[in-house]
Design a protein that fits this description.
- The complex is a heterodimer of chains A (115) and B (287).
- The mean pLDDT of chain A is 92.
- Helix content of chain A is 38%, strand content 33%.
- Chain A has 115 residues and is an alpha/beta fold.
- In chain A, strands 1-2-3-4-5 form a 5-stranded mixed beta sheet.
- Chain A has a single domain, classed as STAS domain (Transcription Regulator spoIIAA, 2-Layer Sandwich).
- Chain A has helices spanning 30-42, 60-75, 87-95, 108-113, and strands at residues 6-13, 16-25, 47-58, 79-83, 103-105.
- The radius of gyration of chain A is 13 Å and the shape is globular.
- Chain A starts with 5 loop residues before the first strand and ends with a helix.
- In chain A, strand 2, helix 1 (30-42) and strand 3 form a beta-alpha-beta unit.
- Chain B is built from 15 helices and no strands.
- The model of chain B has no long low-confidence stretch (mean pLDDT 82).
- In chain B, helix 1 (2-10) packs antiparallel against helix 5 and helix 4 packs across helix 7.
- Classes of the chains: A alpha/beta (115), B mainly alpha (287).
Amino acid sequence: MAEAQIKIEEKIAGKKAVLQLTGELDAKTTPELKARLDAVVAAGVEALLIDMARLTYISSAGCGALNATLKALKDKGGKLILSSLTKEVRDTMDLMFFTKRVAVYTNLAEGEKNL
Amino acid sequence: MNRLVRLLAQSGKNNFKKYVYDPLYNAAWERRAADARKTLEHLRAELKNPAYRNTLAPNCKRMIGAAMAENLAVFGDTVLFFLEVIQILPQVGEAKESAELMAILKAPLSAWQKEQDERSAYVFDRELNNMQDEQIAAALEPIKLGITEERARITGEIQRLYQQILIASRADNYKRAGQLLSRYMIEYSDAEDYAEKDVRKVIDALKARDKTFEDSLNALLATDLYYRISQGIMKGDLRAAVRMIRKYAHIFEGNPHIRYYYEIDRLERMLYNVITKKNLWKFIKKA
């Protein structure tokens, strides 16, 4: 099996940021996302949208990184929201109960409107 | 190391000989047979007496050496006893015989573990594919406290265990508190009444008094979960293995610094692949 890869595109505007993920989030790629998320939060972002239209897999490692960011943002009075979840990603997140903790929007435009 | 050796013993005589007996034999630990079983009973009794603690490690070494000349069964018991004592008594853990045992077994055990991981992954994938849809769904189902009696029993057990944790932490009994917390988290982290915030408070309080507490607890939890996963796979109890993977994910939430992070991530991917292949997502979520 080919090794998982992740590409992260980032747009920061003041206290808001949008991250678009492409690839897979597993034990190998999650530390890269985690480092980026920590940097975004440290830069003062309080409202974060993560678009997952091109994310094809997520494991509990990925959900864990998102959960840690969610907690960090909530502590600052901020929020984390998600958009464009593929069926595969949504299923895993449901199983991890993560979709119960965050707002999920059908597409990027919807997500940006609610950021 | 204790759990790993125990797992290895369960995997068969040949493995145990190859990865535990032979390395110790090559390190010249074998001695003349001297009824190691009797010595084991003596040492078990001496465990309770602090006056004998200084001599426990050299005696354990001698006993293992004698057991090597007897048979594999008593040899296994003596090695496990020594490893157990190393864990329980810091004085024994610091002895040169303990360091020697660890140094001899470290490389062969990690070689076996690597092989075992490969074998487990293969067996897990195969068995998972053979599992009935209902079995997979049931294995992934969190504890549901629907029936009144069952709810009362589990809620009572959660509260009782939690009280014991508080007592152990107040008494600075870190080892006991760690064991109880580990049991509590493994059993109930996915239960409806799990007191996540309270558990966090207890861990933080113990961590403030002993900086290594949380790392030790995580190592204990991860090892225990990994042991149960491997045991489940080895015994063909896929339901237990799947449940423990689910619990590992729930407790550690993808922390890469936790033991067995990559090994369990690999099994998790296999699990999701089978669920997708069998088109079970809807079924599992309903359960």
